[in-house]
Amino acid sequence: MIVMALDHTRDYFHFGALQGNNPLDLEHTTVWIFLTRWITHFCAPIFSFLAGTGVFLAARKKSRRELSWFLVTRGLWLVLLELTYVKWAWTFAFDPHLFLGLVIWVLGWSMIVLAALIHLPLWAVATFGLGLIGLHNAFDGVQPDVFGRWSGVWRVLHIRGPVAITPNLTLRAAYPFIPWIGVMASGYAFGAVYEWDAARRRQWLVRAGLGAIVLFALLRATNVYGNLLPRLPQPTVLRTILAALDCTKYPPSLCYLLMTLGPGLLLLAGFERGTPAWLSPALVFGRVPFFYYMLHIPLIHGLSSAYFHWRCGRADFVGFLPTGPAPADAGLSLVATYLVWLSVVVALYPLCRWFADYKRRHRDAAWLSYF
């Protein structure tokens, strides 16, 4: 959750982001800007994967029927918030003609699909999830136009892009369903690992994490499958490594998911021994991740708008959908962007700690499970 806010702070404050530069473009970026963007790639896959694991663990206290109902209702709640509040937080605009389908959108729909999948045997859920992750790149060459009037369905499922729902209503589905639904389903099946004893579980986590990283390295080295765009030759060793790390996120390629979930499994193995003392304060954000998410976007956006109104006299160039070009000197350095990011995290800590304590004191309040 903390790392996620770094990317969003960069979007709203960093000079390169406001000038429209791609932080992963090796021709025009720096190593530190590249890595600042790259490290945040770990967030969405681990969110989705561990959300599935959380569902598996919740099945210990709920019947399948109760759990399905909760997943459907919470999924619809997330979709509704994405289309309304979250869109406003990103844009500070109420445009009834445009919907945004971002990460909360795809998490919601993944929960709705998982509501049905949990009634299947665990091996079937695992096969479904891993199949979507491993095989979806085989369909990268299928273009929406081949589906004619149903082209929008393929955009929502697998190809990022705008979908004209009506002549006056457009959906921008930045997070296609495939393979994100498979990531959450795989995380659900993975939950069974937490029924094993600690030693066996840690051994499996290390082997699976290393196996994913090795497979990622093989796929990127051979350059034959697993990513929407092939890796291009580079003039230096450093740029070759960075090019290998630059995997497709929209939709997340097999290589992208191996690159992020593999190290994620190794981190879980490391945390089997407990949370290091220096990381203990971060647990507060992990206890109320959705609450934190709902607050951090408008806070970052509001700070950015206020700062650039003061510095430039206008702020129409900030936001998810800017309405004007940025002045040539608009934007902060990378170091200053990091300072803003840390300030945002520190500012949200007291509120998140309060809400975490509130949830702990009111465990029986059903509505709190939706936040």
Describe the structure.
The protein has 371 residues and is mainly alpha-helical. The protein has 2 domains: 1-42 and 283-371, no CATH class; 43-281, no CATH class. The chain has 15 helices and 3 strands. It has helices spanning 2-13, 15-18, 31-38, 43-58, 64-91, 103-117, 122-135, 151-157, 177-190, 198-222, 237-245, 254-271, 283-287, 289-312, 334-361, and strands spanning 98-101, 161-166, 169-173. A 3-stranded mixed sheet has the order 1-3-2. A hairpin with a 2-residue loop joins strand 2 (161-166) and strand 3 (169-173). The mean pLDDT is 95.
Structural classification: mainly alpha
| SSE order, one letter for each helix or strand | HHHHHEHHHEEHHHHHHH
Strand content range: under 5%
Largest sheet: 3 strands, mixed
Over the alpha carbons, how many angstroms does the gyration radius reach? Answer: 21 Å
Total helices: the number is: 15
Q: Any low-confidence stretches, pLDDT <50, length ≥5?
A: none
What's the helical proportion of residues? 55-70%
Number of strands: 3
Main sheet: which strands, in order across? 1-3-2
Mean pLDDT: 95
- End-to-end separation in angstroms reads 15 Å
Shape: globular
